[in-house]
Write a structure and sequence with these properties.
One of its GO terms (biological process) is ubiquitin-dependent protein catabolic process. This is Proteasome subunit alpha type. The chain is of the alpha+beta class. The chain has a single domain (about 1-50, about 60-235), classed as Aminohydrolase, N-terminal nucleophile (Ntn) domain (Glutamine Phosphoribosylpyrophosphate, subunit 1, domain 1), CATH 3.60.20. Helices cover about 35% and strands about 25% of the residues. It is built from 6 helices and 10 strands, in the order αββββααββββααββα. It has helices at about 20-30, 80-100, 105-120, 170-180, 185-200, 230-240; strands spanning about 35-40, 40-50, 65-70, 70-80, 130-140, 145-150, 155-160, 160-165, 210-220, 220-225. α2 (about 80-100) packs across α3 and α4 packs antiparallel against α5.
């Protein structure tokens, strides 16, 4: 009986479910993994990079992470095309706020705009929900460093550490046991992020080619967004005791 509700975004099933939203969540659960951690001196993003072909030119390509403004960035899991639409919308909203008020947009206010758009796509006919989840990280003068997770339904919440994508439940179990609330600095966050990604990827020797890292920290009182290069990631893996194995030529 539930099948006739599958094609209707706005119609609830007799059990009170919106199947299109649940299908969007299913798409996210099969996407590449991403994790974010809030530290006392910054906020860290880490993600799996799924390279589909050795012929792909990946120079400078950030597959899962996007800078929205100087003080805010996101990691995504789900359909990349959907993510691009929301990222462009968020960038435009951030710049409009900066133009109007001559200051950076507060993180939660930006997230609220994104989630309003997401929710609208679950409410009107002829549309489908965005098949993407966001980990939004940033800093503002009101609440300092912040981390939020948003869902296709438009729901969002603040987190100390969060994971999205494939094997996110395994990541949550590691974060619950190893993340120290109020006692995690950026160095500890990097080590824990490597451990969590290794768990999500089910490997003891993660490769620098298949990982992405970025962070937002304060320098001279201003937020700075940094994307780790390949050498930075190799050093991070070595410091975490998970050096990648060299393949035989």
């Amino acid at each position: 009986m539930s099948r006739r509700y599958d094609s209707h975004t706005t119609i609830f099933s007799p059990q009170g479910r919106l199947f299109q939203v649940e299908y969007a969540m299913e798409a996210i659960s099969k996407a590449g993994s991403a994790v974010a951690l809030l530290a006392s001196d910054g906020v860290l993003l880490a993600a799996e990079k799924r390279i589909t072909s050795k012929l792909l030119d990946i120079r400078g390509l950030a597959e899962k992470m996007y800078k929205i403004d100087d003080h805010v960035a996101v990691a995504v899991a789900g359909i990349t095309a959907d993510a691009n639409i929301l990222v462009n919308y968020a960038r435009l909203a951030a710049q409009r706020y900066r133009l109007a008020y001559q200051e950076p947009i507060p993180i939660e206010q930006l997230l609220h705009k994104i989630c309003d758009l997401k929710q609208g796509y679950t409410q009107f006919g002829g549309l489908r929900p965005f098949g993407v989840s966001f980990l939004v990280v940033g800093w503002d003068e009101h609440f300092g460093f912040q981390l939020y997770r948003s869902e296709p339904s438009g729901n969002y919440g603040g987190w100390k550490a969060a994971a999205i994508g494939n094997n996110s439940q395994n990541a949550d179990s590691v974060l619950k046991s190893d993340y120290k609330i109020g006692g995690t600095d950026m160095k500890m966050a990097k080590t824990l992020a490597v451990k969590v990604l290794a768990k999500m990827l089910d490997t003891t020797n993660p490769s620098a080619d298949k990982l992405e890292f970025s962070s937002i920290i304060l320098e001279k009182g201003k937020p700075v967004y940094k994307v780790f290069n390949k050498e930075d990631i190799k050093t991070l893996l070595k410091d975490s005791g998970m050096e990648e194995k060299k393949s035989a030529s």
